[in-house]
Amino acid sequence: MQALPRLRLSPPRAVFGCRAARTYQLPPRSPPNHTHRALATNTITANSQPRKLDLIALDKKWQTKWQEEGANRTAASGKEQGQTAAGEEKRKYYILSMFPYPSGTLHMGHVRVYTISDVLARFYRMRGYEVLHPMGWDAFGLPAENAAIERGVDPAGWTTDNIKRMKEQLRSISTSFDWDRELATCTPEFYKHTQRVFLMLYEKGLAYQAKAMVNYDPIDQTVLANEQVDANGFSWRSGAKVEKKLLKQWFFRITAFKEQLLQDLDSLSGGWPQRVLSMQRNWLGKSYGAKIKFPLVAESNIDINDINVFTTRPDTLYGVQYVALSLDHPIVLETAKENEGLRTFLTAAALLPPDSKVGYKLPGFSVINPLHGIDKENPYLSRRLPVYVAPYVLSDYGEGAVMGVPGHDSRDFAFFKENANPHSIPVILEAEQTPPNQHAADVPINEAKPFTQEGYLTAKCGKYHGLHSREAGKLITTDLKATGRADFVEQWKLRDWLISRQRYWGAPIPIIHCGDCGPVPVPADQLPVELPELQGDWLKGKRGNPLESSEEWRDTRCPSCGGKAKRDTDTMDTFVDSSWYYLRFLDATNKQQPFSPSLARPVDVYIGGVEHAILHLLYARFIYKFLAKSNLFPEIVRSSDSTAEPFKTLLSQGMVHGKTYTEPSTSRFLHPSEVDLSSPDKPLIKGTQITPNVSFEKMSKSKHNGVDPTTCVNKYGADATRAHVLFSAPVSEVLEWDETKIVGMERWFARLWKLVTDTQLSLSASAYIIDQADLLPSASLPSLSDSDAEAILSTHRTIASVTNCIETNPYGLNTVISDLTKLTNTLLSSPPTTPHISYLTLSSLLRLLAPTAPSLSSECWEILHSSIQKEESIPTIFDCSWPKSPLTTEQADVLSARGGQVVAVQINGKLRFTVTIPRMLSPTTPESSATEQQDYIITRILETEQGRLWLREKNDWEKKRRVIVVKGGKLVNIVF
Ligand code: ANZ
Ligand code: ZN
């Protein structure tokens, strides 16, 4: 039990003292029995004239300060950072936002993600953590190379210039990154270690070369990953029609980690969005089923006796009506040698999207249903089934062959409808539709629809009739297994990761090819294998791979036998760089190793766009799992069985959409300059005076709806931009960027400014000092004025709500802004009457605001304290700790219960009555506060005489109605 329930004002040590860098000479402490006193020795300066708020000027002032501070911090030893005032080790917290590609210009999506991570970083620092919040550049990749070719400049120089520009833009939005750990993946200092990671994989047999049918982009002259080819077979970058080529490529054996990659997703379920987890699961794509052998009947001489298929639905085997093969199935390749028609079909089909339903019926081939061997009398099983070649059958999945069941599979159904036109044979029905022994009639395929669920087998299915799909599937597979015609198998969609690119701007693959020794790893002391300097003619538009054409670079000696040898001329996919960069930040200047084992650790919060939900995260998880078992991690991690995951929490933020104007009749996208926006609510097309259609869409040049963050920051300041970004949508949802609404943030800041300048005046006038911890014994609680009580209660609740939101539900960061505006309004509408309550509430509000609006809160803090501590320099707001709840739960209850709350009730827009209801007890929990408060107020109103009369008798309360509680419960609007 707490001995002395009291209102605790944060004493200077608590408020100021968290970074023990400086020790403050505290003003003399007051005797404990005094509540507060004037400090006679302190000179009081009453600011005569409040200043005008200029957000842009504040940015300039504070950003310059932070930049100098950052430089000083880098110069000083890092020691003080890792320790608390008491010299204890601080808890470490690693906050990372996905590093950008250095395109040269920041876009609104960047502003969103870096604002979120910056708010978290500043918050955790104020909470006393040693925060790591680094930034770097995903600097390899095609765009730099292409842009360089177009402009005839070196990709390295182009990239460095872009980095410089973007870094400046990041500063302009007041981000607080640890620039001393900055890295760029295109520098030899970084890619030396990417090459090291490659060789570690190679040593373990996890990097290998194999011939592969690859997607070849004839314009960019490179191999593309499947994901870089769109659904219609075009390159994601160049837009070229992608060709198939068989080439030797480098792969990482990610499939060796598939079970772990799948299983460990369970351990992430608290920290990652379910949506991302299920995207990862689908990508890994584990499915259980059966491999079934269909006896092949061939007229020609072919060395193949069976066609194997993989199916997840062996229960539908009675319904098989054909078998389909992929374009490169051995039977197909063999037949194509003799069959010109097939060859023509294959050439045409290779260019079709995988969901195309064209097919080619292989003449002279048929198969027999393997069940015929078990169920000889069944007429459905005695028929020979046709064999097709079809692009919808994937060559690298299962057996590259499908048993076609038009009655129960939509793809098979569509295919059969297009390529044959008989009946579909249902063999599974929902239970209630299947009276015992009844045959389900075959249905003409034009009238039929596939039944794709599981159900019960019909009377066509011999001894399996009446069984449930799952049971039947197991039994059928077991029976066929006994005759050597089936087996239980599992399949994965995941394929090994093709990492080689025939391009210049990437990390060279550190392998030397020797005629005698084969591929030989480049010895560790010869890393990095640096990229060759680009020759002039290549810059002037020569295509192809400069690593190949640069003989001087390519020709070398074999590290093993010393004979003539050639360097591998491929570079690595940029996803390799990003699969491990987050570990490099932990030890960014280590020359010997990628990072030291003593520093290896996962990221606590990782923030980035949902477009990276699959590949980047999967590759990073794979590499982390691999490295965690290597000697780059400490023994304790290596030998542990627990899951090794790189990102404990994942915040995946939604896109930013821009306001888009279109001409209603033609749907032409209008440039904003074509629209008269003088009254923002009523835009008109200039000239015609027609109202344009307004929508929010993905920002793009063609839609003229892009927003340049720099222009926005220059106009409204970083703080208003940041607050608006946070406020406009919950983190995971699409943010509809509407610049006209930013004025809401400006108005709020203006109110806050007034509050601070007013309070500062009255504080200095009363010569209030802040060094007293025991200002208000619990006995004083009842003597608090109403406005003091309300101010302190609101502050108490806001601290709880904001803290809880950032710590446990950062997806709801938008509510932080609404909580803070509410508190600002409360303090303005009923200002506290006691100076120390003024101080307590306002200094808390400013600290709560600091992560979001760093310049404004820093300035307000300085103003607030300018007359208090004369002889000491004022510590900045970020040197101070996060506010603690000023009340105990009991105290909060006492204050909440005090007096009543007057509520005005409006019905259908008319003020009908006012009632006094008891204040709500015990602070509400932050997530439910709004609805809880609303329910509480409505229940209390219904208990009153007036409430009953107006809501139950004169109106029908049970009817559909809308209730809006405004002004924190002072006004309730009910619309029937
Ligand atoms: C017959 C069947 C009947 C099927 C039915 C499904 C439903 P998942 O779950 O994604 O693993 N399939 C097998 N190999 C294929 C290939 N190489 N290319 C395209 N499709 C292939 O999918 C497994 C199902 O995908 C298999 O089960 C097979 O169709 C098809 F009512 O077999 B099924
Ligand atoms: Zn050799």
From TrEMBL:
Reaction catalysed by this enzyme: tRNA(Leu) + L-leucine + ATP = L-leucyl-tRNA(Leu) + AMP + diphosphate
Source organism superkingdom: Eukaryota
According to the record, the residues making up region (Disordered) are 543-564
Keywords assigned = Aminoacyl-tRNA synthetase, ATP-binding, Ligase, Nucleotide-binding, Protein biosynthesis
What residue ranges are annotated as transmembrane?
none
- In this protein, which residues make up the domain named Aminoacyl-tRNA synthetase class Ia? 84-267, 494-657, 697-734
Which InterPro entries did the record assign? aa-tRNA-synth_I_CS, aa-tRNA-synth_Ia, Leu-tRNA-ligase, Leu_tRNA-synth_edit, M/V/L/I-tRNA-synth_anticd-bd, Rossmann-like_a/b/a_fold, tRNAsynth_Ia_anticodon-bd, Val/Leu/Ile-tRNA-synth_edit
Q: Which Gene3D superfamilies does the record match to this protein?
A: 3.10.20.590, HUPs, Isoleucyl-tRNA Synthetase, Domain 1
Q: Which residues form the Methionyl/Valyl/Leucyl/Isoleucyl-tRNA synthetase anticodon-binding domain?
A: 792-919
According to the entry, every stretch annotated as the Leucyl-tRNA synthetase editing domain falls at 281-479
Q: What is its EC number?
A: 6.1.1.4
Q: Which family does it belong to?
A: Belongs to the class-I aminoacyl-tRNA synthetase family.
Q: Which PANTHER family match?
A: LEUCINE--TRNA LIGASE, MITOCHONDRIAL, LEUCYL-TRNA SYNTHETASE
From the Swiss-Prot or TrEMBL record, give the protein name. leucine--tRNA ligase
> What organism is listed for this UniProt entry?
Aspergillus pseudoustus
